[in-house]
């Protein structure tokens, strides 16, 4: 009870000091407010950006490996001419991997065809991304359907003129929502729509099915030369549940070297790309960004902390008489110490709360202007409040200690 009473009186003294010196309080809050605003805004923006990027990366599959000609990541001195001379993945290799792999749950072949114009009667949509895929594609990628279905095995094997289209394409060409069963014109051919993907929305890595069309590989091979370098061919391997990505990768490397008849010691002429490569790079990038934002903000907070320390010294000087009277009436040193320390902490926490409030306003403004929602997470709020309180302790401890050590007689006689 004595401690609570002491704490209450300390808060009252701090409150009176803050109210009586509004301009001084406002100026002392400014540095802390700017510092907390900078740190939390950077952290929140990075968390939001990272979360959206991670969602995009997760679409590629956590246990999927992409056999491609080019690696996803390059070093500063990468030998691009060696990559350029590599052969492209072939359907024959996909078939051989299906026969030999013991760790793969599914292996698909897919290729980017082109960005083309698609028509239905008088409706037209440009820039549609066309992909030619083997039947196993539905097993290596997880899709949700707003309507219809994926290709049947017979449609894939015979190269039937069928397609699964993205939500935005269906919405543009078929406003009434009756896309399935209709015939659209692609690359000069009439193709029947058998399915419509569910809407995914915008994607930072442009990995979205909304503006994509999937076509059976055996249908497309009758229209274009699928061995052409421009089609970005790849083999996608999804590992079996319970088998680690490292095991799948190790087996694939051995199988691909065997299929391509590479001698021991000879370099791989293929790349095994996986999402962990991208995730690791994102971790490094965002660590640097977080550190930069933290250091910028910490300098602002330190400036604010020095300002609050100066204000506290001024406050001690102004209230020296009161301190002397309190000590002569029996106030202990720790009571004076806590009184001024709480005042410094309250000032800093108020600055932190103001900084968080401005971050919140900034997130609302960004959402209204750019339709991008920045998430102000609980962990960032806690970082802001705890950092403010810590700066309050650091900036207030010396003035508070100085006030607690005053001689009551000298304090009462001072002007």
The level of helicity is 55-70%
Unreliable stretches, pLDDT < 50, 5 or more residues?
none
What form results from the Cα inertia axes?
Answer: elongated
- Structural class by secondary-structure content: alpha+beta
What can you see in these coordinates?
With 415 residues, this protein is of the alpha+beta class. The protein folds into 2 domains: 2-56 and 280-413, no CATH class; 87-269, no CATH class. Helix content is 56%, strand content 17%. It has a 6-stranded mixed barrel. A hairpin with a 2-residue loop joins β6 (183-186) and β7 (189-197). α1 crosses α12 (333-370), α2 runs antiparallel to α10 (275-318) and α4 (91-100) packs across α9. It is elongated and about 105 Å long. The chain starts with a helix and ends with a helix. The model has no long low-confidence stretch (mean pLDDT 81). This is FtsX-like permease family protein. One of its GO terms (cellular component) is plasma membrane. Residues 294-408 form the ABC3 transporter permease C-terminal domain.
Would you spell out the secondary-structure blueprint of this structure?
Elements (H helix, E strand, L loop, with lengths): L1 H19 L1 H37 L5 E5 L11 H5 L6 H10 L3 E17 L2 E11 L3 H4 L4 E4 L4 H6 L3 E4 L1 H7 L9 E4 L2 E9 L14 E5 H4 L13 E6 L5 H15 L11 E4 H44 L1 H9 L4 H38 L7 H27 L3 H6 L2
Parallel strand pairs: 3-8, 5-7
Antiparallel strand pairs: 1-9, 1-10, 2-3, 2-6, 2-9, 4-7, 5-8, 6-7
Subcellular location: Cell membrane
Organism: Mucilaginibacter limnophilus
Family: Belongs to the ABC-4 integral membrane protein family.
């Amino acid at each position: 009870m004595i401690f609570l009473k002491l704490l209450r009186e300390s808060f009252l003294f701090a409150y009176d000091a803050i109210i009586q010196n509004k301009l001084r309080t406002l100026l002392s809050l400014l540095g802390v407010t700017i510092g907390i605003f900078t740190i939390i805004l950077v952290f929140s923006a990075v968390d939001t950006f990272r979360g959206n990027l991670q969602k995009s990366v997760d679409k590629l599959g956590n246990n999927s490996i992409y056999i491609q000609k080019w690696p996803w990541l390059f070093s500063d001195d990468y030998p691009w001419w060696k990559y350029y001379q590599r052969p492209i993945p072939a359907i024959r290799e996909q078939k051989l991997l299906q026969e030999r792999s013991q760790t793969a749950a599914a292996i698909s072949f897919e290729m980017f065809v082109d960005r083309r114009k698609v028509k239905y009667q008088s409706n037209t949509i440009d820039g549609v991304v066309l992909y030619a895929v083997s039947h196993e594609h539905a097993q290596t990628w997880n899709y949700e359907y707003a309507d219809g279905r994926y290709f049947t095995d017979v449609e894939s094997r015979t190269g039937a003129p069928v397609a699964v289209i993205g939500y935005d394409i269906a919405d543009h060409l078929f406003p009434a929502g009756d896309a399935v069963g209709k015939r659209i014109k692609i690359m000069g051919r009439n193709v029947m729509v058998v399915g419509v993907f569910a809407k995914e929305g915008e994607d930072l890595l442009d990995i979205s099915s909304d503006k994509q069309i999937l076509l059976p590989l055996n249908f497309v091979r009758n229209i274009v030369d699928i061995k052409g370098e421009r089609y970005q061919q790849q083999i996608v391997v999804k590992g079996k549940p319970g088998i680690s990505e490292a095991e799948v990768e190790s087996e694939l490397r051995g199988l691909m070297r065997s299929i391509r008849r590479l001698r021991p010691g000879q370099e791989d002429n293929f790349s095994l790309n996986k999402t962990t490569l991208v995730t690791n790079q994102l971790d490094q990038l965002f660590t640097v960004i977080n550190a930069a934002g933290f250091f910028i903000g910490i300098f602002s907070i330190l400036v604010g902390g020095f300002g609050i320390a100066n204000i506290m010294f001024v406050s001690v000087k102004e209230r020296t008489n009161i301190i002397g009277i309190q000590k002569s009436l029996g106030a202990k040193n720790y009571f004076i110490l806590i009184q001024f320390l709480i005042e410094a902490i309250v000032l800093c926490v108020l600055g932190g709360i103001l900084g968080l409030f401005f971050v919140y306003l900034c997130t609302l403004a960004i959402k209204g202007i750019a339709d991008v929602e920045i998430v102000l997470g609980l962990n960032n709020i806690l970082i802001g409040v705890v950092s403010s309180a810590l700066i309050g302790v650091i900036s207030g401890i010396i003035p508070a200690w100085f006030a607690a050590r005053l001689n009551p007689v000298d304090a009462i006689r001072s002007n």
